[in-house]
Amino acid sequence: MDSTTISSNGFTGNAGEVALLNSCHTTAKARILVVDDERINRQMISCIMEDLGHDVVPAASGEEALEVMKANEFDLVLLDFSMPGMDGFDVMDAMQDDVKLMDIPVIMVTASDESELIVRAFSQGASDYVVKPVDAAVAQVRITNQLNLRQAKLELWESQERYALAARGANDGLWDWNITSNELYVSPRWREMLGYSDSAPITVDKGWMDSIHTSDREKFERALRNHLDGYSKHFEMECRMKSSGGRFLWMQWRGMAVRDQDGVAHRFAGSLTDITENKTADPLTGLPNRVQFMDRLQRCIEVARRDLSKSFAVLFLDLDNFKLINDSYGHEVGDQYLKTIAARLIETTRRGESLVARLGGDEFTLTVEDIDSPQPALAVAKRVLRILSAPVRIENQEIYPGISMGISFAEFPDRSAEDVLREADTAMYEAKSSGGKCFKVFDPVMQQQARKRLNTENELRRSIENNEFIVFYQPLIDLKSGLMCGYESLVRWNHPERGVLSPFEFIDVAEETGLIIPIGNFVLEESCRQLMKWRNQSDAFDDIRCSVNLSRVQLHHFECVNWIESAIEKTGIDAASLTLEITESSILDRSGRPAETLERLGDLGLTIALDDFGTGYSSLSCLHELPIDVLKIDRSFVREMLTSSQSEAIVRVILTLADGLKLKVVAEGIEEETQHGFLKSLDCQVGQGYLYGKPMPARELFEFCHKRNSSTAT
Ligand code: C2E
Ligand code: MG
Ligand code: MG
Predict the structure, then answer these.
(1) Whole-angstrom Cα distance, residue 714 to residue 475?
(2) Which of 395, 539, 610, 698 is most buried when burial is the number of CB atoms within 10 A of its CB?
(3) Residue 413: what pLDDT?
């Protein structure tokens, strides 16, 4: 059979035509898989394809075709549709399920011009078809079309990708890395950002990889490998790069690999954006942020390591009651306040010797550098406290800044920047715990305390889940009648190993972490429920009132009133039987949310008591303006009132004041008969203390009440 004869069910071929067609099309040499169960057809088609300069691999069945396709790369498949076993449709199905094969164009070869079959083949993903007997010229045109189309698609995708990256911003630098040849193109803007001249040779190893900060390099390389291996769709990375001048800049990389049909990346292109400013400046105050501060600390440490006489200190500042100011006056005033503090901090320091930064929220830091003793840093600390403490006036509000400050000295050269900062933070915390408005120098003992606190916090979280809290009840005695008139509910932590713990062991941590909210709500509900239970059991509880402590954290929360309403609703207690005890410090500001919350609670018919009265800073006007019904004289005055004339005077003043303001008074901490007698003689209405009864479990209080109220004579 020569090449121009026609086979009955095969191919017609004409070498001349084919050669002409071949010269018209510029398709590069392609790898073509010819699948046909008829040997003669396979040979014919293969022969012509080879004449056209293509590489041909024949396959005699659908099964064989798939096997060969999986093991090799093909640009096109000529597929006979009617084959025994796996037919053309089955092969196409299998190809659609394989990412490696799904994009290969398939030209189907059908025995006849059956339109139904052709439509079905197209719907299954065939790119074109030829009918047996196949005309060589027609087949070649169709093959070439498909190959050209495929090439165009690839090129379009590549150029679109590159265009998209380029369009992302003229301000960005662009790069394009040909992975196969390892050639790197970087745009003029790329060079400019990093300070390289137009002629400086930039390669992947030199100028790119080696300029990435050593601390970021591993992360960068890992992300790059992941992307090139196909595990991430886009490459995105923020890292520091050293400019030719030696300065580190924060750069954002965005890019995408161009892959061949096997998913192998052969090109990687993208953009580079300088984000140093966003990364290192605090947008509100314009001060350097944590990132820049840590960089500076790192440099200070390196200097100190080289020259031990060049030490430095870190000052860590936190504003006292900032949250209160934000909540009471609003965020705009809060922002203004932070800006004023930032400006004052800059004033207190000499440029170059210190770096002032805002770490976030109300936390500021500054370095005091090039010092050989603690003295200069202590002097700066005092100056900062003095200058920052002057009142700040914003929109008719006068704010008296309170600053808590911690100082750490870089005494041991082996510590990291994080260590030094953490120590200053720990010392600041100590300053705050001791009442604020002062500074503390870090001492390793503080670290232990901080660890203990963290431990308590973790344990507290666990204990809430395990319901380890219980409520004790301490009787309140009507001093005139001697009868029990109420009780104060006091929380206890029934610790699985340490036994029953006093609130002093955990209340502070619970307040700092917000865990006081679930704990406080539990105490509130439990004590209301308990009173209702007692009232059901005995008439003796009809007039008994229940007092619950409300933490400043609860009082400042916008849900506070809801929680209390819900406890009342759930337990069925009447609001008039419930007293909430708040401390003076929680109503430091007489405006804002706490005041509003108190008003609403008063409207509900609840009684509000000011706890530990006399120890805080409440002014007379505060008692006037807020809906307070009861003052609880702090037990420190009761303890000393018979031995210290000052304490006695305070107790007398409080009672007189309360009388004038029509407030009721409860005296706390009565331990002796003489104290009881003295308070009674001054017409103090209610007493609480160990003399009558310590805080006790519910069952004991029930008995206490019965015993006391049935046996006590007036
Ligand atoms: P507080 O509200 O002033 O409660 C009175 C504290 O004085 C109780 O301490 C009580 O046991 C103690 N006390 C009473 N009488 C005497 C006495 O005669 N002598 C002496 N030395 N102490 C007496 P406790 O139970 O250890 O509670 C300490 C503080 O913890 C409470 O002071 C309160 O501020 C807080 N607290 C207790 N339970 C809760 C709670 O459920 N929520 C909140 N937010 N705070 C609570
Ligand atoms: Mg109390
Ligand atoms: Mg108290």
Answers:
(1) 17
(2) 610
(3) 63
The residues with which 579 forms a beta bridge, in sequence order, are 547, 607
> Is pLDDT at 11 greater than 80 in this prediction?
no
Task: Name the closest-CA residue to atom 7, ligand 1.
Answer: 669
CB of 648 within 6 A of ligand 1: the answer is: no
Angle at alpha carbon of residue 676, lines to 675 and 677, rounded to 5° = 90
Mean confidence (pLDDT) of the chain:
86
What is residue 207's DSSP assignment?
B
Q: Is the pTM of this model over 0.70?
A: no
Q: How far is the CA of 573 from the centre of ligand 3 (A)?
A: 23
- What is the Cα–Cα distance from 584 to 620, expressed in whole angstroms? 12
Question: Which amino acid residue places its CA nearest to atom 20 of ligand 1?
Answer: 669
Whether the CB-CB separation of 594 and 602 falls below 8 Å is answered with: no
- Ligand lying nearest the CA atom of residue 511: 1
Q: Is pLDDT at 326 greater than 90 in this prediction?
A: no
Nearest to 243 by CA among 301, 303, 197, 174: 197
Establish whether residue 581 lines the binding site of ligand 1, counting it when its CB lies within 6 angstroms of any ligand atom.
yes
Closest C-alpha to ligand 1, atom 15: 689
Which atom of ligand 1 lies nearest, measured to the CA of 632? Answer: 3
- Number of Cβ atoms within 10 Å of the Cβ of 598: 25
Ligand 3 centre and the CA of 651: distance in Å? 15
**Ligand 1 proximity of 611 Cβ (cutoff 6 Å):** yes
To the nearest whole percent, how much of the chain has pLDDT over 70? 91
Query: Is the CB of 666 within 6 Å of ligand 1?
Result: no
CA 81, 83, 86, 92: dihedral to nearest 10 degrees? -10
pLDDT score for 1: 33
Q: Is 702 in contact with 537 (CB distance < 8 Å)? A: yes
Show the tokens assigned to 581: 């005890």
Per-residue pLDDT of 264-312, as tens digits, reads 999 998 888 888 887 888 889 989 999 889 988 988 888 888 887 888 9
